[in-house]
Amino acid sequence: MNYPAHEVQFHMYRLGRRNRVAQLYVKNKDTFREFYPTTDIDKYMNGQIISIGGLLARMCVACGTAREIERFVSKATNSSGCGNTCDSCRTTQRRTEKLHAQYLTVRSKL
Ligand SMILES: [Zn+2]
């Protein structure tokens, strides 16, 4: 395979999964893995857990920040084993919902 690595990387980030990129280049995904092995950056961009300086971290989908896995709730259905949003984003979401409920209450009394 003689595709430029940056082009393949672009499609990896765009499509998210190796088998989809392999399908795009009409290649077997195992052949494709030899040509383009998964890097930590790929794993990080896909929301998987990576090790940064000995700390296990993943990217929060809401704020796009790398955070320690302790700051995510446990979620067995996800491949990473933890939720997609960090504790501070979940708190903000709860606060937003509460403020919206107060707004609706005040509006109904007017
Ligand atoms: Zn977040």
Descriptive key words:
110 residues; 5 helices; binds zinc ion
How would you sum up this structure in a few lines?
The protein has helices at about 5-15, 20-25, 30-35, 40-45, 85-110, and strands at about 50, 55-60, 65-70. With about 110 residues, it is mostly helical.
Descriptive account of the structure:
A three-stranded antiparallel beta sheet has the order 1-2-3. 49% of the residues lie in helices and 10% in strands. It has 110 residues and is mainly alpha-helical. The radius of gyration is 20 Å and the shape is elongated. The model has no long low-confidence stretch (mean pLDDT 86). Zinc ion binds next to helix 5. Zinc ion (ZN) binds next to helix 5.
Number of strands: 3
N-end to C-end Cα span: 68 Å
Overall morphology: elongated
Regions with pLDDT < 50 over 5+ consecutive residues? none
The H/E string reads: HHHHEEEH
**How many helical elements?**
5
SS strand fraction: 5-15%
Please compute the radius of gyration using only Cα atoms. 20 Å
Mean pLDDT reading? 86
- Spatially, the strands of the biggest sheet line up as 1-2-3
Determine the structural class based on helices, strands and strand pairing.
mainly alpha
| Bound ions, cofactors and other small molecules, one mention each | zinc ion
Main sheet: strands, sense, barrel: 3 strands, antiparallel
Q: Report helical residue fraction.
A: 40-55%
